[in-house]
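Deliverable D5.2: sample structural annotation.
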Amino acid sequence: MIRRALGYGGICTVYEGVHLYTSRRVAVKILNDEYKGHDEARLRLLDEARALGIVRHPNVVEIHDAGTWENAPYVIMEMLEGRNLEGLLTSRGRMHPTDALQVIRQVALGLGAAHRAGVVHRDVKPGNIHIVRAPAGREKATLLDFGVARLPRGADKASQRFGHAGTVVGTPEYMAPEQAFGRVDLDGRADLYALGAVLWECLTESVPIAGTYDEVVAFHANAAPPSLRRVRPELPPALLDLVDRCLQRDPRARFPDAQALVNAIDATGLCRGVTNLIDNNMSLSAAEAPAPVVSIPAAEPRPAPAQSPHEASWRRVRALARAPFSAPVRVVVDGEIVDVRGEDVAEAGLLAIGPAGFVVGDSVQLRFALPTTGDVVTTQAVVRWVRGRNGSSRAASAIGFEFVDAPYPVRGALASYVALMLQG
C-alpha cells in the first residue's frame, strides 16, 4: 500500500509504502507517468536495482525487491529515517571537521564495496547521502540513488544499449575532470573526487567549482585544481592535504581506492567520537554553527544577528520535540505556488528546504501529507526564519514555518509521529 510521496524527481518519484501483511515501511521508487514509456529511463531504473543487488554494505541503501507492474518498473528499498546531508548543510551551515570526516569515512566504506563489485556510482553528492540512526543508536551515513551508476561489464543493460563515448551523466559541480570530459575509462577514483568535493562543501558550505556543466568543463580545462588551503587555511594540515589530494585533476594523483582514503582519514587523528546530526538540527538558529566535540582549530565564529521577535517566537517552536520529515510540501504565498521539501517537523511547525525568495513574516498556506496516515492536509503558517546559501548555482534556502491555528487532527497526528520517532 502506497502511503505518501517522499520526494519528487525529474524522472522518478519515491513513495513511502507499507506492506499489507507485515506492516513494514519501505521506500518505493517508480517512474513518473511521462517516463513510463521511455526505454532508457525504464532500463536505468532496473539497472539501479541491479547495482543495489550487487552492492550489499551497511553504508549503501538496501534493496528489498524490484520488478515491473503493468509494464512499468519499480524498485523497493529500505525506508531511511533520518536527514539528508544537503538539507543539513542548507539548514545548519558548514559542519565541524570531526562530523564531516565521520560522514565521509562511512560513505567511502560504502563506495569501496561498490568499487570492488565493479560498480561506479557517478553521482556522489550531498543530496544522495542520508544520515540515519543505526540499530545500536549511533548514526551512520548511507549512500543512495544508483540511478546513473556504471555496472560491471555484461550487467549494465541500459549503458550497453544507450551509452557511448562522450556520454556524460552526473551532477556537474561534483564531476571529476575525466567524467566531465566524457571519458569511458573512468573508474572509482571519479567517485573519490566527488566525495572530496562533498567534504569541501561540508567544511565550507560551498562547492569547490560552482557553475553550469560548461563552466565546470572550462574550469577543469584551464584552471589549476581547487585548493582548500586558500579557503580555510586554519584547518589542520592533514585535513587540507586529504581534501586537496581527492580533487587532483589526474586520477593517478588521487587516492588509489576508497580504502586508501579511509586509511588517510584515520591517520589524521581527527575522526573521533560519534555524530549527533539527526537530533541537532532545528534547535540551531540559522546563524549558529554546531558545537565542537573535540578541540580542533576552527574559523572565527560569525557574530549572531540581533534576535527579532520572529526569531524569538521560532526559538520556542524549535524547543519542542521534533523528528525528520521527508516529504514534498506545497506552499501558497501571495497567490503563487512554490514547492519545497520537508526536512523536519514538530507539532507547532516544520522546517523545509526550498528556493530563495521567502520573507520572514510572510503568511502562507501549507499543503502536505501527514506522515502517520498519508492524508493530505492544508493549514496556515507564518515564515519565522530563512537561511540562504551561496557558492552554488543550485543553492537552496532553509525555511522555518510556524503553524497558525492548525486543526487538532493535524497537530495530534504530528505529535503522535514525533513521539513514535523519538521512541525509535
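Annotation notes: The two ends are 22 Å apart (CA to CA). The longest helix spans residues 97-116.
The annotation will be released with the project's public dataset once the embargo ends.
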